[in-house]
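Researcher: Let's do a round of design. I'm pasting the structure tokens now; please hold your answer until I've finished.
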């Protein structure tokens, strides 16, 4: 074959390839399409169920955390209430001790005023005696006013004195410090109150110190 015939053959081959009809790709059948859709749907359903399970797990975890936090809040609130109550009781006990001191001072001042000899009351008082008497009266009035203020504060805080005289001693409210033999009477009846006891909102914060009877004829 000559060199002039070679390009002609190549041109013919190329044109024959262009003119040859292309093989068409086969379309999927309906069953194949349905199967493919079913497979994809199943995959999506599985993914959705996994996400739903995760969401449920997260939700349950959040609910547990919320419950734990609410329990913590309740526990903390209860502890704070107990701490505040104990602190308030300690403060009121100190105030009660102060009230006892003021009451004793008032009793001593009144007793001193009442124990003056009769002749000293009748005779003309000197200026110094009048001043001392005036100071004593002012002091007594100050004690009484202070006690009234303390009693008002105690009432506002729910503090009430414990009744005891003439009552059978109650170990939850009364602390017996002395027993007095007494004929013709019941045992453990309170004769004398040595220190007043108090309750705060129905709870004993200080017991009464008392003397009680003991039937001496038993």
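Researcher: That's everything. Go ahead.
Model: Designed sequence:
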């Amino acid at each position: 074959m000559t060199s002039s015939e070679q390009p002609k053959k190549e041109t013919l081959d190329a044109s024959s390839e262009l003119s040859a009809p292309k093989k068409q790709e086969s379309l999927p059948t309906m069953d194949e399409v349905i199967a493919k859709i079913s497979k994809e749907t199943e995959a999506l359903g599985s993914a959705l169920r996994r996400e739903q399970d995760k969401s449920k797990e997260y939700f349950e975890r959040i609910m547990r955390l919320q419950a734990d936090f609410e329990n913590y809040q309740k526990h903390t609130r209860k502890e704070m209430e107990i701490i505040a109550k104990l602190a308030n009781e300690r403060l009121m006990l100190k105030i009660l001790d102060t009230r006892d001191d003021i009451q004793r001072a008032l009793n001593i001042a009144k007793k001193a005023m009442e124990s003056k000899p009769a002749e000293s009351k009748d005779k003309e008082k000197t200026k110094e005696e009048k001043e001392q008497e005036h100071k004593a009266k002012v002091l007594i009035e100050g004690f009484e006013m202070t006690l009234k203020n303390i009693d008002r504060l105690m009432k506002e805080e729910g503090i009430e004195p414990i009744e005891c005289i003439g009552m059978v001693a109650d170990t939850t409210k009364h602390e017996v410090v002395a027993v007095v033999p007494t004929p013709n009477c019941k045992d453990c009846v309170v004769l004398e109150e040595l220190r007043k006891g108090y309750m705060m909102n129905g709870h004993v914060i200080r017991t009464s110190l008392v003397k009680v009877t003991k039937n001496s004829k038993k």
